[in-house]
Amino acid sequence: QLQASGGGLVQAGGSLRLSCAASGRTFSWYAMGWFRQTLGKEREFVAGIGLNAGSTYYAESVKGRFTISRDNAENTVFLHMNSLKPEDTAVYYCAARLFVHQISPDEYEYWGQGTLVTVSS
Q: Each residue of 63-76: pLDDT tens digit?
């Protein structure tokens, strides 16, 4: 089970940190991803992290602004979002899949409930 938190309203240029807490004892077996979705659009990949924190992946639209990290001891993955833009406004979801990172949301087995990020201009 995944529980996402940390969303909110922020002005353009601001920062937010999303957290996703996982239950269970095998968190370190799972590649983790953050995705986002707006009304009428498909869910899109934002960032991913492999089993160890050395492997990270980003969508071009967030590269250099967002950072994904994980704490396997705390069963938590984070998304640090800086220099936020109005186009980053979306519901953000964390997701987990066994072992190997993938970009497609269809490849993920477990999903959190989503947390809303709103960036005002």
A: 999 999 999 999 99
Mean pLDDT of 31-60: 94
Q: Supply the Cα-derived Rg of the chain in whole angstroms.
A: 13
CA 6 – CA 61 distance, rounded (Å) = 21
Is the pLDDT reported for residue 48 higher than 90? yes
